[in-house]
Amino acid sequence: MTRKSAINMYSQVKTQSTLEGASPHKLILMLFHGAQERLATAKGHMQRGEIEAKSGRIDAAIKIIEGLRNNLDFKNGGEISANLDSLYEYMMLRLVQANMKNDPEIIDEVLLLIKEVSEGWSEIKDQVNG
User: Fold this and answer.
1) pTM score of the predicted model
2) Distance from C-alpha of 39 to C-alpha of 25, rounded to nearest angstrom
């Protein structure tokens, strides 16, 4: 086994055990974090002219955001869910534009939006547990 494959294996086991022990609230935070990581990586690829890698990372972030959007609870979430639905749709549109235009400023815009939603989600947990 190579060092790289051992590290990949460890990461998969670590991720799996983290997922198994995470609350639904924590899982959403992990998705926000995952989208942020992919977008930061995409921005780096963009700046280095690595088009295929950039597109792959942006696509991965879009899929995460789409997953968040598809799992909104409109029945219990009311106006908040409707607002998040619109925001997630906007983020996905902007990321498609960032990919087509090769524009890192659009990625920064979406990163800021994800950060704001993530911070709001964190505050909800603090209020519930507080």
Assistant:
1) 0.82
2) 22
Lowest mean pLDDT among 7-16, 62-71, 92-101, 119-128: 7-16
pLDDT score for 80:
92
Whether residue 96 is contained in a domain is answered as yes
The CATH number covering residue 72 comes to 1.20.120.340
Q: In this prediction, what percent of the chain has a pLDDT beyond 70?
A: 79
Q: Using CA atoms, how far apart are residues 30 and 34, in angstroms rounded to an integer?
A: 6
Is 1 part of a structural domain of the chain? no
Give me 121's structure tokens: 């989600």
